[in-house]
């Protein structure tokens, strides 16, 4: 019976218009694999991508800003990116489209170690402040500093090396760490992190993580991208319905992950995952207008033109 069902499923996939069973799709993450990406691994391991006729290859970036650029260029089929970065890219003329959400509220913080005498953002005036993603976090830092009167600071690109940069006093704080992840890792290494949540210090609400692709890929492979979105939406539902098994599935798929850190981080991250595809255009436009006002972008961006609406 199982063999017959498998044959029927395979025939259905091959017969789907615009889709071929096992069609390869390259997806680049925004960071090294972690529980922020859990629904992606659930979709892969539970066979949701296969159901859509897809074979998805998950790739980690060499640099934190690579994914969106490669997707816009068509070198990568899809990428995990950030709403602010995508708006900045659109202003720069990169042909990028937003196809689905992943994490729907900010996780990003301006983070520092406990005991450094930092009580308000202004205390970071005349200090060195790191950032994680060039072209995004340094720009967000500039806006945050303007709003909160941080004067004469020195920006430093620290990339992935957040904790070493803080512990070695290379920087006094870092823009970019997630309140749901890096804080957990630091605690496990014996350091207590403190942070300013951006949305509580003048930065509008935004979608932290999203899926994007180049306009060329979307034009040439609309059914393939739609299949990916359908599979991810199914993974959202499974993660919400059975979080314990979803976490176990992720940990099995990413054996190099630190189980203790990832488990604690998942509990903090879980409420922020999307539950369905689609985006709040009003929220997107509000951030785009903020970006223009504070110099993150030079031209007005129409958020509705940036987001692909699935019918």
Salient structural properties:
5-stranded mixed beta sheet; single chain; alpha/beta
Question: What features would you describe in this structure?
Answer:
This protein is an alpha/beta fold. It contains 14 helices and ten strands. Strands 2-1-3-10-4 form a five-stranded mixed sheet, with helices on both faces. A five-stranded mixed sheet has the order 7-6-8-5-9. Helix 8 (182-188) runs antiparallel to helix 12 (259-269). Mean pLDDT is 92; it is low at 1-20.
Topology:
Blueprint: H1 2-15, E1 23-28, H2 38-45, H3 48-51, E2 54-59, H4 66-73, E3 78-81, H5 83-91, E4 96-103, E5 108-113, E6 128-131, H6 137-147, E7 154-157, H7 162-167, E8 173-178, H8 182-188, E9 193-197, E10 209-214, H9 215-220, H10 222-241, H11 243-253, H12 259-269, H13 281-293, H14 303-306
Parallel strand pairs: 1-2, 1-3, 6-7, 6-8
Antiparallel strand pairs: 3-10, 4-10, 5-8, 5-9
Helix pairs in contact: 2-10, 2-11, 5-13, 8-12, 10-11
Strand order of the largest sheet: 2-1-3-10-4
Q: Strand pairing plus helix content: what structural class?
A: alpha/beta
Q: What is the ordering of alpha helices and beta strands? A: HEHHEHEHEEEHEHEHEEHHHHHH
Number of strands: 10
Mean pLDDT: 92
Count helical runs: 14
Please tell me what the overall shape is: globular
Strand fraction: 15-25%
* Biggest sheet statistics: 5 strands, mixed
Q: Tell me the radius of gyration.
A: 20 Å
What fraction, in percent, of the residue positions are helical?
40-55%
* Unreliable stretches: 1-20
Give the N-to-C terminal Cα separation: 35 Å
């Amino acid at each position: 019976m199982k063999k017959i069902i498998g044959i029927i499923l395979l025939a259905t996939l091959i017969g789907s218009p615009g889709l071929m069973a096992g069609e390869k799709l390259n997806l680049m993450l925004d960071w090294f694999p972690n529980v922020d990406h859990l629904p992606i691994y659930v979709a892969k391991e539970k066979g949701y991508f296969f159901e859509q006729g897809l074979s998805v290859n998950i790739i980690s970036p060499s640099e934190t800003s690579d994914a969106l650029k490669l997707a816009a260029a068509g070198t990568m089929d899809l990428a995990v990116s950030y709403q602010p970065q995508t708006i900045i890219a659109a202003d720069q003329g990169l042909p990028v489209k937003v196809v689905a959400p992943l994490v729907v509220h900010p996780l990003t913080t301006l983070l520092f170690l406990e005991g450094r005498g930092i009580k308000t953002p202004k205390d970071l005036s005349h200090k060195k402040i790191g950032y994680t993603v060039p072209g995004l976090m340094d720009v967000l830092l500039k806006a945050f500093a303007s709003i909160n009167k941080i004067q004469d600071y020195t920006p430093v690109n620290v990339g992935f090396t957040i904790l070493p940069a803080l512990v070695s006093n290379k920087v006094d704080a870092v823009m970019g760490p997630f309140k749901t992840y890096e804080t957990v890792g630091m605690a496990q290494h014996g350091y207590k992190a403190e942070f300013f949540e951006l949305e509580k210090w003048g930065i509008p609400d935004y979608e932290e993580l999203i899926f994007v692709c180049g306009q060329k890929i979307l034009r040439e492979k609309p059914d393939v991208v739609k299949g990916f979105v359908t599979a991810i939406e199914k993974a959202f539902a499974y993660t919400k319905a059975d979080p314990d098994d979803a976490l176990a599935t992720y940990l099995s798929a990413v054996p190099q992950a630190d189980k203790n850190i990832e488990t604690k981080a998942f509990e903090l991250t879980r409420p922020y995952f999307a539950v369905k595809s689609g985006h709040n255009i009003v929220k997107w436009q509000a951030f785009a207008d903020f970006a223009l006002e504070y110099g993150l972008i030079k031209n007005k961006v129409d958020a509705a033109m940036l987001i692909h609406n699935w019918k």
